[in-house]
Prior knowledge:
Blueprint: H1 4-15, H2 23-54, H3 58-84
Helix pairs in contact: 2-3
Amino acid sequence: DLDPQVRSTITEALVSPDAPYEDSEVRLALGRATKRALERFSQQIMRAIEDAQAKKDAGLEAQLMAEYLDVKRKIKEFTVSYDEA
Length: 85
């Protein structure tokens, strides 16, 4: 779910005949925001992994490591596909 203001700005930029932003500017801003969100999420997972290690919860640590690696893979895929566009 997008913030209502962000959604409104994107909609305006994409449908307005006199859009205040170029399509490429919107795509660039969305790409950067998505990458930053994924990176913040991976940092949160890393903190959770550290907590699981401190609590000696190997099962939770393994689950979080799998999630962390999945997020890192998604960041890499996103960066590669975004750079190609």
